[in-house]
Amino acid sequence: MEYAFRDIEKKWQAFWEKNQTYRVENQSDKPKYYVLDMFPYPSGAGLHVGHPLGYIASDIFSRFKRMKGFNVLHPMGFDSFGLPAEQYAIQTGQHPAVTTEQNISRYIEQLKNIGFSFDWSREVRTSNPDYYKWTQWIFQELFQHYYDKDADKALPVSELTARFAAAGTKSVNAVCDEDVPVLSADEWNALSETEQYAITLKYRLTYVADAVVNWCPALGTVLANDEVKDGVSERGGYPVEQKLMRQWMMRITAYADRLLNGLNTVDWSESIKEQQRNWIGRSQGASVRFPIENSERQIEVFTTRVDTIYGVTFLVLAPEHEYVDELTTPEQKAAVDAYVDATKRRSELDRMMEVKKVSGVFTGSYCLNPFNGEKVPIYLADYVLAGYGTGAVMAVPSGDQRDWNFATHFGLPIIPILDAQKDIAEQADATKEGHYINSGIINGMSYAEAVPTLVNWLEERGLGKGKINYRMRDAVFSRQRYWGEPVPVFFKDGLPYLIDEKDLPLELPAVDKYLPTETGEPPLGRAADWKYKGEYEYELSTMPGWAGSSWYWFRYMDPRNDNELASKEAIAYWKSIDLYVGGNEHATGHLLYSRFWNKFLKDIGIAEEEEFAKKLVNQGMIQGRSNFVYRVKDSQPATFVSAGLKGQYEVTPLHVDVNIVEQDVLDVEKFKQSRTDVPADAVFILEDGKYVCGWEVEKMSKSKFNVVNPDDVVERYGADTLRLYEMFLGPLTDSKPWNTNGISGTFNFLRKLWRLFFDEQTGKNVVTEDAATPEELKALHKAIKKVGEDIEVLSFNTSVPAFMVLANDLTSLKCHKKAILSDFVKILAPFAPHIAEELWEVLGNEAGTVTFQEFPVFNPAFLVENSFEYPIQINGKVRATLSFPADAQPKDIEAEVLANETVQKWLEGKTPKKVVVVPKRIVNVVI
RNA sequence: GCCCGGGUGGUGGAAUGGUAGACACGAAGGACUUAAAAUCCUUUGGGCAGUAAUGUCCGUACGGGUUCGAGUCCCGUCCCGGGUACCA
């Protein structure tokens, strides 16, 4: 009987579905474990072989944890709002819900084909109204909270207004807009309800603002910073321009410090944590106000090096700075106007390309150094960004290379400020070492002494203060799109109000077209008679892609709850994700927003833990491995030459579908049939009777003809082989090309395993009840140890060889003993669940129960060796091996080694300088 | 530029500071077969010497260093991949 993988896999997939094998309850005597994959966007192209990599890894881990006695939550769902469905809808007029539904069905079919142990009863889809009801609900909660800095958490707006009424706006230390009015309690209480409401809008965690956004005219939408790459949209590559628009914003900056500090508590890769730290971009420094000469006004700058203040020889403002007009003297007006104009016209791309070039213009005005009253010229330069800090910097050319370049270019003075600075004439020196010189009140001090001295001086005079700046901005939350969650807000007299909670979900209305309206409103503006309570305008933008994915792990805990996003009991039980697996392209998007929402949900008593995912693993990308044929240039009839001979011709390489190539050998007939551009009389120049293709590693994509569909692999080799092979390819976190060439190795292993149970000729079951020998137990327990340890650290690529070695060993030992094979099946079950269930049944066990067997326990007693083969090194090079009892004493070993013939030969009669004996490792004789 | 990864046979890769190349693919040779498939056996980093067993030298991007011993640790250089950028 052959290993009939197709029948076996179908049988067990049906069994699991019928018996609800992987259904999991929210209560159990067992400890819980939550393993989550980043859920996919169901694209029209279906899964390719790269997608399941992480799912296979997390599935193995889930199955392993089940066998280790955990109650494992391992769900799957779909991030089903998104642009491609909408673009398709624009082209075809088909409702995105319809295509999304079709795509999801296809995904589920493909996923079920691979034998994952998902609890499908918990599936969620972000585009379902019963799901996005809760996305909208969270939005409303954000709207009803503000961030209190003293409590260091979100508090209800009702608390804010109560405190305003009792003690005025100054009594609350909150994160808010820059332009909030300062009111006493009496002044506050004298305001109308609407006026008070308008003020609270400046405090809420989600708010409306006119924001400069990345407007993409081609897509008709606003893009997040991380959706824009090099000035064009990441999706589609369309031009993006800066535009001021009314947008919903998320006050994520309120959580900046918690987002930063939380990184120290999670087991995530250092690279992701570092990316998030950079994204948040916290810098500690001071703000300093420079009075403008002959003016009442001051220019505020932010600096991380307030200690260098006596080295300031000029100030630089962003060309967009609000004081530019005022500061420009008549003589400089023409030059300034020209510069500002040129800056406006330069695209971001130009600005990036000219990073090295110094440009700028003098305004004609001066300000005064607050410490010594020195006159400081004010320049404009486009290297200063309006959006960061205050849009103005104090320039210290002796300590900052960019300032040094600028000073040198414009002939401005460069003042040394530290005695440890060197070579100021050649370049800047940013050192903090040494003692200050030319520095007024801090002369002679060290860096550590100078900073507090200066900050105190500034604060006493109200000229500045210690300040922390963040690179991170509040997140734009509006999208001018159709296929997303409607924002549950209506407008009355120009002010936004929440719709009643009982009216949630606010469902997407029908529209005639999925395009902006003629007047430039988002597509929702097309909905007929779409008004709240029949009279109020709804918000017409929808939520961004990340809204639905920023809390979905909670919904899996209690996916059908109509009253809450998840019950308190469910959240108390599952708490947070123990292992989260996904691609690292989400490093600063999804993973940062999710942390933000989780922290907010913790503040309002829903989440149990500060961080939503304890451990995060980023699987590597599976790249494509493209194959090429080589067409001889200008050949008639068309001539293709095998890769090994292409050097003899002038050739054009052409991509060829990898699915008609095996071991880099082209199936010429299929090639002729599949390509209309290959004439029937095409000539193929072969080597050794074969047409060998060239290859290259590229992105996996249709256009490169290198996409491999997991369904095809499953059809040919089975899901278990696919699972093993994807793990066998290399470390989970590495990117690697998919190369089907090696897959027969894992397939052969499963067949070899099968032959331990069955005689393939006769089909007879050959399993015996004999007692295991020490040798067999040793082989088995080596594998148990290796596999158990490897899974814990997600080193799946090294467990597969352990299985192969065990199968090879047992084959050589002619071992068909149930006592050994039972445990083999169990340790293999997480990797290859179908064949494991089948063989488990063959061994006489109850059908479908291998899933819940205890993972075999490694017994070190079986691995004890009574002797050890010592490599004997002479000066670090192995010259012999000698066997010694395991408990041999080093001095005995040394004596015998020195007496050895080979060692004697190398000693040439000399006495060794040293003999190193490492028990059960090695012996090194140093001559 | 800066911050992370990484560079090991023809290929994917393995290796708590202790015999580099496990395991697998591919390749070559052989057995079985009328033949093929499947299976099994042998060889497979490179050079030199030897009929052979074997011996010997070189070898983990490159150059140094630490160590009895370095793919592994340290310093410097080069290359590849990812992230990020006039961030004050």
Automatic annotation (TrEMBL):
Methionyl/Leucyl tRNA synthetase domain: from which residue to which, for each copy? 38-145
Superkingdom field: Bacteria
Q: Where is the Aminoacyl-tRNA synthetase class Ia domain?
A: 698-725
Instruction: Write down the chemical reaction(s) this protein catalyses.
Output: tRNA(Leu) + L-leucine + ATP = L-leucyl-tRNA(Leu) + AMP + diphosphate
> Where does the motif 'KMSKS' region lie?
699-703
Q: Which UniProt keywords apply?
A: Aminoacyl-tRNA synthetase, ATP-binding, Cytoplasm, Ligase, Nucleotide-binding, Protein biosynthesis
* Gene Ontology CC: one annotated term: cytosol
**GO molecular-function terms, A-Z:** aminoacyl-tRNA deacylase activity; ATP binding; leucine-tRNA ligase activity
Q: Where do the annotations place ATP binding? A: K702
Matches recorded under Pfam families: Anticodon_1 (PF08264), tRNA-synt_1 (PF00133), tRNA-synt_1_2 (PF13603), tRNA-synt_1g (PF09334)
**Which residues are in the Leucyl-tRNA synthetase editing domain?**
277-458
* Residue intervals of the Methionyl/Valyl/Leucyl/Isoleucyl-tRNA synthetase anticodon-binding domain: 777-889
The record's Gene Ontology biological-process terms are: leucyl-tRNA aminoacylation
Where in or outside the cell it occurs: the entry states: Cytoplasm
What Gene3D superfamilies does UniProt report for this protein, alphabetically?
HUPs, Isoleucyl-tRNA Synthetase, Domain 1
The record's section on InterPro entries has: aa-tRNA-synth_I_CS, aa-tRNA-synth_Ia, Leu-tRNA-ligase, Leu_tRNA-synth_edit, M/V/L/I-tRNA-synth_anticd-bd, Methionyl/Leucyl_tRNA_Synth, Rossmann-like_a/b/a_fold, tRNAsynth_Ia_anticodon-bd
This enzyme's EC code(s): 6.1.1.4
UniProt main location, coarse: cytoplasm
What family does the Swiss-Prot or TrEMBL record give for this protein?
Belongs to the class-I aminoacyl-tRNA synthetase family.
This chain belongs to which protein, by name?
Answer: Leucine--tRNA ligase
Give the originating organism.
Siphonobacter aquaeclarae
Q: What is the lineage of its organism?
A: Bacteria, Pseudomonadati, Bacteroidota, Cytophagia, Cytophagales
Q: What gene name does this entry carry?
A: leuS
